[in-house]
# Entry
Amino acid sequence: MKYIIHVNRQFIAKNAKDGGNRPVYTIKHKGKTRYAREVSIDGPSKLIYNGTQLNCGARAWIETDGPLSLVDEMSWKEAKMNEVTTFT
# Structure
């Protein structure tokens, strides 16, 4: 039951550009992807950088089998809704 956690650089850049509040942590588990603003790992974990990258493009990530606590957990669709809309 391995969890893979990495930082979504694109969301960080978009938040900086438009003042959005997208969650920047991506959590992959059992073929599903969730997003969160904060992740607590309740067990052993390891940080991995081995010169390869994940399918999503992440080059460094955390792997853990321990349970996680996620703050503001959401789906991709919900995460995208945290964009700032400018009205003209």
Summary: The chain has a mean pLDDT of 90. The beta strands are 3-7, 25-29, 32-36, 38-41, 45-48, 61-64, 68-71.
